[in-house]
Amino acid sequence: MCGIVGAVAGADVVPVLLDGLKRLEYRGYDSAGVAVLMQGEIRRVRKIGRVAEMEQAVKEAGLAGTLGIGHTRWATHGGVTEPNAHPHVSNGQIAVVHNGIIENHDEEREKLKALGYVFESQTDTEVIAHLVHHHYQTSGNLFKAVRLSLIQLRGAYAIAVIAVDQPDRMVCARMGCPLLIGLGEGAHYVASDVSALLSATRRVVYLEEGDIAELTRDHLHIEDQHGRHTRRPLHVSDVSLSSLELGQFRHYMQKEIHEQPKALSDTIDQALEDGLTSTLFGPEAETILRDIEGVQILACGTSYYAGMVARYWLESIAGIPTNVEIASEYRYREVAANPRHLVVTLSQSGETLDTLEALKYAIALGHQATLSICNVRESAIPRASRMVFYTRAGAEIGVASTKAFTTQLVALFMLCVVIAKLRGRIDASKEAAYLDTLRHLPGSVQHALNLEPQICVWAEHFAQKSHALFLGRGVHYPIALEGALKLKEITYIHAEGYPAGELKHGPLALVDADMPVVVIAPNDALLEKVKSNMQEVRARGGELFVFADLDSHFGEQEGVHVIRTPRHVGLLSPVVHAIPVQLLAYNTALKRGTDVDKPRNLAKSVTVE
Ligand code: AGP
After folding, report:
1. Given this model, what pLDDT does residue 550 score?
2. Angle of CA points 260, 596, 240, to nearest 5°
3. What is the whole-number distance in angstroms between the Cα of residue 348 and the centre of ligand 1?
4. How do the residues of the chain divide into helix, strand and coil, expressed in percent and rounded to 5?
5. Ligand 1, pocket-test mutation among 401, 406, 407, most atoms within 8 A of CB
6. What is the CATH number that goes with domain 3-244?
7. Is the minimum distance from the CB of 402 to ligand 1 under 6 angstroms?
8. Which ligand 1 atom lies nearest to the CA of residue 404?
9. Which of 155, 184, 437, 576 has its CB surrounded by the most CB atoms within 10 Å?
């Protein structure tokens, strides 16, 4: 969603701002802008559309300066228009960029109007700009003006503020949205995401909830929410620039699909080196996991589907009661919590607001055992959790989650085996067998990737359709849901995922020759059941597209197309079956010519509710 970058330096900061905004594009946005202090004025350029268009306008305007802020906006309050794009400026004197949502903006807008402020946009952010201006007029101190303004505001924010008469100063603050400070040589930077700063610095400090920071070229001053001077630890980011670049690929989603064998083996490596032990989840894990009576998984979107797969594993292998819930539902429900249940949050970005808030709610309900499985180091959700497991998928840029999903699955599988061991449910030979399956998994995934030419032929057919159904059973039911989500997300084809046994309770009414039905048909205990469900589809003239394991002996017939996935890999089969549905969505999107990496209306990190 929205992205922030800012800099105060001894040289022109415009190239850093533009480079940073380009690196934030993956988060999803619909307009972009920068404001720079230049010749004693705040000069601003904003454009709807891509950063490249805004960059052109910046060049034409000849913008340059040693203090500046930039923003990519994903519209929430007010439409996608230039006046609504950030930075917002008050009376030519204060400029602000903001991520998040100010809840009491209407109330504050009225008060500011009464003071004579004129609003040019429909955004909540313009309220911040005028409020800071108001307090700056009376206090003459930018830091103080920001603090006084924030006291009046309710909601979530990460902000960066500059003033026309403070050429070497920027003030930043966060509450509910991530913000970090980059430390350079005679320069300081601010960004919502470390990737925005990689070409300038890798040395960063993460602001904590309620922190306000003042940055000059060579000085950084941070105060916590109680106004106490504080220091935050220095981190050196290990995100590689190459992981953020496309290389030989046409799209990030394509790159990320094909990176899965490596992402999986990097994530599994930790277990192959040290065994499937509780230390994978941190030093405290053994004590915590030994005591738990159940598991509550919280997540959104694709991460939620990973949680659904894990429930099958946790209940069958570890014999532990498991509940999985969409975070945005859990956080507003009166939950009958059992504090002895382990709360597992799943999030690629670690920033998803609903998941973060659900975690905070669970903690408030008394849950002390919390584990975050996350792909982004030092992001908000792991920071709020007691135990953390980082998947090693590398940066995921495409809005459609792929390698994060499959690496979450192996992380959850490892968690399940660790809990099963602690509960005495599996012996050493079983553990060795699971390790062996994990070891061979990247190879099976590579085999599934090699099916792409056959999947491309199907994609031609799907590209002409308006609807599709995905069916699966048991542990593969969530893969049907994931296949449907991938297809709708990037091709805009309406798709639904169903447990195949549920078909005759309603969705069968939709089946006709125009409704392609994708079936996930692994060679497991439910295969014969799935075959019966397929008959129900064929009998109504529906066309079947079946992903069947090599050893499941499926034959092609009229109206039944089959692609053979690798030999059944046992319990980890959902990881392998995730690959063909990703490839089907990607190749169908290519044929339809949609914006694969930045599908309409969506954002990579969903930092608002
Ligand atoms: C998946 O393709 C999506 N773009 C989306 O559902 C995503 O998985 C969801 O927003 C959760 O994100 P997170 O894993 O970063 O928390």
Report:
1. 84
2. 45
3. 7
4. 40, 25, 35
5. 401
6. 3.60.20.10
7. no
8. 14
9. 576
Cα(399) to centroid(ligand 1), Å: 8
- What integer pLDDT is reported at residue 449 of this predicted model? 97
Same fold across 252-449 and 452-592: yes
Look at residue 244 in the predicted model and tell me its pLDDT: 77
Q: Is 372 in the pocket of ligand 1 (CB under 6 A)?
A: no
**Which amino acid residue places its CA nearest to atom 16 of ligand 1?**
347
**Position of tokens 């409704």?**
515
8 A C-beta contact, residue 15 and residue 189: no
Identify whether the C-beta of residue 176 lies closer than 8 Å to the C-beta of residue 209: yes
Segments of the chain scoring below 50 in pLDDT: none
Segment 515-551, tens digit of pLDDT: 999 999 998 888 888 888 888 888 888 999 999 988 8
What is the 305 CA–ligand 1 centroid distance (Å)? Answer: 10
Q: What is the fold, at CATH topology level, of the domain defined by 252-449?
A: Rossmann fold (3.40.50)
Q: What residue ranges do the domains of the chain occupy?
A: 3-244, 252-449, 452-592
Q: How far is CA 351 from CA 370, 374, 375, 504, 609, in A?
A: 16, 10, 10, 39, 11
In sequence order, what are the residues at sequence separation of 6 or more whose Cβ sits closer than 8 angstroms to the Cβ of residue 147?
212, 223, 227
> How does DSSP classify residue 556?
-
Place of tokens 């959850």: 412
Whether ligand 1 lies within 6 angstroms of the CB of 31 is answered as: no
pLDDT at 159: 97
To the query of whether residue 465 is one of the catalytic residues in this protein, the response is: no
- φ, ψ dihedrals at 230, nearest 5°: -145, 160
Catalytic residue list contains 59: no
Q: What is the pLDDT of residues 130-170, one digit of tens each?
A: 999 999 999 999 999 999 999 999 988 999 999 999 999 99
Which residue CA neighbors atom 13 of ligand 1 most closely?
A: 347
CATH number of 452-592: 3.40.50.10490
Has this prediction a pTM greater than 0.90? Answer: no
